[in-house]
Amino acid sequence: MSSAVRILRDAPLRQRNTFGVAARAPLLAEVADPAALPELLEAPGFRGCPLLLLGGGSNLLFVGDVEHPVIALSRREVTVVTQAGGGSDATIVRADAGVSWHELVMQTLALGLAGLENLALIPGTVGAAPIQNIGAYGVEVRQFVHAVEAYEPVTGLLQRLDPAACEFGYRDSVFKRQPDRYIVTAVEFALPRAGALMLDYAGLADELLAMGVDAPTPGSVAAAVIAIRRRKLPDPAVLGNAGSFFKNPVVPAALAASLAARHPSLPVFRAADQPALRKLSAAWMIDSCGWKGHRDGDAGIAAAHALVLVNHGGATGQQLLDLARRVAGSVRDRFGVALEPEPRVFGASW
Ligand code: FAD
Ligand code: NAP
Is the CB of 248 under 6 A from ligand 2? Predict the structure, then answer.
């Protein structure tokens, strides 16, 4: 086996998922060079098996032990591929899958590049960013993805997917819909030197004002986003969580209008690129069912944020899943709206 691969047997996963849930995997391969993937996938225990690609473990829930072999890509290089100029006003930056997402955001800002500032402090890796088309404060990563490099085990080819081939949607992509098809090895981003700042989300402009910023820059917007997130979201190092456990449901405009007529304070937003649909606030619906701060043993809902399922210490994946199902059940009964989990649930179906 290539020296770029380190294989662990009966690997503990508790430190590798931000819920801090105990689970084990039969085999875990840390891969320092994606060129070693073809040989690894022919090795005993890996050949022909469905795989689990693991980044920072901040968007998944383990329900019991993992049966599949696990692969973690560890290379962390960031390179500027082409500078703006020669007809293009964007700089192309390439980052390996193993790079920390937040570190990439800060590195691109330090290079004077704009675009990723609203996505500051999202946990996890670059390799996972395209999987659910990470988004925050009105920006989605798809707006800046130039290409995704991915190894396709079935063909044995390293593919280069342009944004259209990634089929990005709201917290969605071809990678999320076909989780066994690709191993994302690197992502290229096209970043402008200056771009229009997105300050629409409630709280962001106010935060900048409170910081005394009257001419916002990408760097000051990132600082504002970081400050809000540190205040609002539980730190997984202190209280296990995977961020928002539920996606905001996107429903037909007529249903949104009838719900808003019955519940005038329900926040209803336009759904990007889908004029006949509306996005509802899952957090508002969960809160109005009384779940905020609720606790079933060590499984709970964050006191400060109704979308965030938390592990107070010793909750199992099953206990967290049971609570999430009860939350979704009460929203369905009260509003007739189905909530779907945003993280990938391993070991159980939703
Ligand atoms: P993991 O959890 O390790 O994996 C997630 C999924 O991607 C799994 O299905 C996994 O198999 C797959 N995957 C990972 N790497 C690869 C790869 N190289 N190739 C193929 N598949 C792969 N998300 C947002 O969109 N916006 C937010 O604002 C946000 N805020 C968060 C705040 C907190 C406090 C937390 C805990 C989470 C938040 N998240 C948010 C969710 C999460 O951080 C992101 O989805 C992140 O991109 C997950 O990265 P990861 O490396 O931890 O992925
Ligand atoms: P918030 O700003 O209090 O807003 C509540 C909800 O309303 C959000 O879910 C957001 O949808 C929606 N919203 C607010 N203003 C909007 C606008 N102008 N147009 C369209 N939709 C709007 O939310 P928050 O929980 O504090 O999170 C702030 C941002 O960080 C959000 O974008 C959120 O998605 C992101 N975040 C994501 C996670 C995760 O794990 N996925 C965790 C924490 C924060 P959207 O979620 O669709 O943006």
Answer: yes
Give the pLDDT score at 1.
79
* Burial (0-12, 13-18, 19+ Cβ within 10 Å), 48: exposed
**Are residues 42 and 90 part of one domain?**
no
Q: What is the CATH number of the domain that holds 253?
A: 3.90.78.10
Can you give the pLDDT at residue 160?
Answer: 98
How many folded domains does the chain comprise?
A: 3
Regarding whether 94 and 46 lie in a shared domain, the answer is no
Residue 228 lies in a domain: no
Alpha carbon of 202 to ligand 2 centroid (Å): 9
Structure tokens at 77: 């290089």
What secondary structure does DSSP assign to 213-237, as a single string? Answer: -SS--HHHHHHHHHHHHHHHS--TT
On whether both 89 and 34 belong to a single domain, the answer is: no
Is 243 near ligand 2, meaning CB less than 6 Å away? yes
Question: What spacing in Å lies between the alpha carbon of 203 and ligand 1's midpoint?
Answer: 24
Q: Pick the atom of ligand 1 nearest to 234's CA.
A: 34
Positive/negative CA dihedral, 41, 47, 50, 54? negative
CATH code, 175:
3.30.465.10
Say whether 342 is catalytic.
Answer: yes
pTM of structure: 0.96
Do residues 69 and 82 both lie within one domain?
no
Report residues of the chain scoring pLDDT below 50. none
> What is the pLDDT, as a whole number, of residue 87?
61
Q: Which domain holds residue 46?
A: 5-73
